[in-house]
Structures are given as structure tokens and as C-alpha cells.
Amino acid sequence: MSSLVALRFIQVISLRQVQAHFLKLLSLFLLSMLLCVACHSSTSVTPQSNQTPLKVGYSLWPGYFPMVIAQEKGFFAEQGVKVEPVYSENYLEPISNFSAGQTDGVTLAMGSLMGIIGQNPDIQMVMLTDQSAGSDALVVQPEITGAKDLKGKRIGAKLGDFGELFVRQLMEAHNLTSDDFTLVNMEGESVPARLQSGDIQAGHTWDPYATQAVRTGAHTLFTSKETPGLIPSGIVFHSSVIRDRPQELKAFMKAWFQAQDYWLTHPQEGAALIAQALKLKTADVSTAGVQLMTLPKNLKALTPGTTTESLYYTAQLYADFFIRTGGLSTAPEVEKLIVPSFVQALSQEQP
């Protein structure tokens, strides 16, 4: 009888051990489920440790500075995407690196996009960063007080790019033809020095170079306020990146718009952060003369239209200009050049 009691006791102990082990496993399972739910309900997304960073080039232009805020404030990480910003003071260097396949994306003006698409057909614009609304300028020597004084003068501009189109549109609006002036090919960064030397009497450039020209004795004759919507800038990616990494691009853009909103609502803090990161003077960092293209503005611009409020219309304007001036031998398909789906998807997520 004692042996049966002992056997029963062993069976009870074993059963309790099994039950305890089962309860432990069940507890661990429920805890894991709770953690998963918590992670999915959070607005922050942890980037995958093995994720290859998106390399995106940008240059010294206020509309591109949300890149700095998104990186410094941790917005990219918050949205779950690794980004490697590649900065250059020179406008053309990031574009050249992108064309050579050294980066995944680049910020550039629409005219510059048209300038490289002939050699890089598999690239597409996914969003607008900004529109020039006064930052682009025609700066002139002191004695020039009106458009009529530009007759017979040398005007500096980047030929075959948005600078040339900007100058020609201005001159046409003031009843001057191409026979009335001479266009001299140069980068916007070199305009202040060329003006000061007397090599040119007027030139197209943008801030901070326009401000530099004014500080050395020139003055502003016209700005892009006279040509609304003519000089849009955006972010372009290789088509393979758009195809293979759509979730990362969506997260990148979400963080970008988050950074824009931060700068617009915290202008002083945003300017100080940008100035420190790029080693600029805080006074030189401003959105004055630049219209940041927020998500709602992007949604409107990335809709077909018949004015420069539509990126499709403006892109066609540039395409026609480049065909006419020999910058392109074949007109690009504007509908394929622009990818509105990311902006549309983000807009649908808005409350």
C-alpha cells in the first residue's frame, strides 16, 4: 500500500511540474503578444539593423534644409528608415554623383532634372521640396535700374538649365528679345565675383549668393516673385530604388514633411539647428523667398493642370524649352517622369 501511495505522490508532483512549465510558457507567449501589440501601436518604427541607408545628395538651398532637421531631430529614425545625407555647397556636385550612381536620390530643380534625363532616363521625381518665390534673382550692377538698361549687356546664367529659362522669361515679359543681350554661361555661385569684376553686368543666382552680390555693391532687379511656379525643386530617385524600396521612400518622405512642419512652427530653432549642422550663419538661414511644399501643397501640385501650379504643366514647359534649345533630343514622357503615388498615399493617411 505504501508503494502505491509513493507512486501516486510522484505522479502528482510530475503533473504539477508539467502544469507549472505550461503556465510559464503561456505567460511568455502572452507577454510577447503584448509587446508586439505595443510596438505596432506606437508611431515610432525601429529601423532594421541590416537596412542599407538611403543615400540622398543635397546642396546649399533653403528648400533642401528639411534634410538636416529630419536627420538631427531623429525624424528619419522615428519613421523607421536609415538615411545617409550627402551634402555639398556646390549645386552641381550632388547631381553629378547621382548621375554616376553614387547616391540613391538627389534634390534638384526641375531644369536640372531635364538637363540629366537624356543620359539618365531611369529616374523619377517623387515629391516637390519647394518653389522659388523670391530667392532666385537677377542681380545687376549699380547703374542698371530697369530692363531697358540691359540692352547690349552681358547676363550670366547657367545655359541649358532653369537659370536660362528664368532670364529669358523675365526678358520676354519686359519686351526684350534674345538679340538685345548676351547670355554668358556660368554657375550661379560665381555670379557675385563675376559681377564685381565687371565681366558681366547682370546675372541669375539665388540665396545666399544673391545676398553676397548685394553686399559687394550689386542690387536686385527682378526675383522669382515675378515668375510664380517657374522654378520648382524636388527629390528624384533612380527608378530601381522606387521599385525595390517603396516602404523606405514612403518613410523618408513622411520624415521630410515632419521636418518641414517643425521648421515652419519653430523657425528660430530650425534655423539654429541648420546653421550649426552646415556651419552657416543663423541669419543666412531662412525660408524667406522660398515656398516650402508641404504635403497638401504637394498633393495639389502633383495633379495635372494647365498652369504652373501643376508640376506636370511646368515639367512640360521645361521639356519644350530643352527640346527647342537642343538640351534634349527626345522629349521625355512627363507622365512617367513624375510619381505621385507616394504623396497620394501619405495624404490618405492624414487624419
UniProtKB/TrEMBL annotation:
Keywords: Signal. It is found in: Periplasm. This is ABC transporter substrate-binding protein. It comes from the Bacteria. Belongs to the bacterial solute-binding protein SsuA/TauA family. Coiled coil: none annotated. Signal peptide: none annotated. The keyword Signal applies. Pfam families: NMT1_2. It comes from Trichocoleus desertorum GB2-A4. Its main location: periplasm.
